Amino acid sequence: MQLMPNKDVAIDDSDASQLKQTPLQLPFSSHLLIDETKMECGQLTTLGLNNIKLLQDLLRLQTLKYEFHVYQLDYECDVRCLIVSSTKSILSCDVHVRYQSEQEVKDITFPNIAKEQIDNIRCYLTYVGQQLEFDKTMNNISSDINTHIQEDFVNMRKQKLLTNLDDFHHLLVLARLEALSYGENVLTENHWNQAKSLEFTRRQ
C-alpha cells in the first residue's frame, strides 16, 4: 500500500486524476496508532522504504508529503503517534516505554472501559495537547523555580543524566504537560520533580 497521497496529473480522465487518499490524511490533533507487531519477515521494497521515510517525516517533522506526478509538496500536519512493537521499532521516536508483564502478550487482557469513559479520556488528552501549543507555563515561571531548574540541569549534566540540550528540552516539555494535566498554567518545583521522576523511571 502506498501511504503517500498522490495524483497523476498526466491522465486526462477526471476520475483517474483525482488525488488518491491514504490512511495518513488525518485531521489536526489526530492520534495515529502504528502497530508493528503485525509485521512479518520479508524483503523491503522501494515502496516500503518510501513508506518508512514518509512515516519518519510525520513523526519527526510533522509533515506529510504529497506527490503530484512531476513534483512533491510537504504539508504541515498535527498527528500524535503511538508505536506498538514487540522489538525495537524501525522508526525513531522521542520516547520509548517498555511494557512489562508476567503474562504472555497473547494472554494480556485490558479493562473493559465504557464508551463514555473513553470519550472523556479522548477529550481530556485533546484538551491538554491543545493547551500545550499556547500555554503560559514557561512565561509564568518564577525566578526561584527558574534557578532551581538551571541548577538541576548543571547537576544532571555532571552526573551524565542528561547528555544534550534535546534531553533537557524533552524534560521541559514533560514538566509543562505535568502542570497542564492538573489544569494549572504555572510550572512549580513539584511539577518539575515529578517530571524528572517519570523520565528517569522510564529510562530504567
Automatic annotation (TrEMBL):
Record keyword Flavoprotein present: no
Lipid metabolism among keywords: no
Keywords per UniProt: Nucleus
GO biological process terms held by the UniProt record: DNA-templated DNA replication
Domain of life of the native organism: Eukaryota
Main localization (coarse): nucleus
InterPro entries, sorted: MCM_complex-bd
Pfam families (alphabetical): MCM_bind
Record's subcellular location: Nucleus
Family: Belongs to the MCMBP family.
Name by which UniProt lists this protein: Mini-chromosome maintenance complex-binding protein
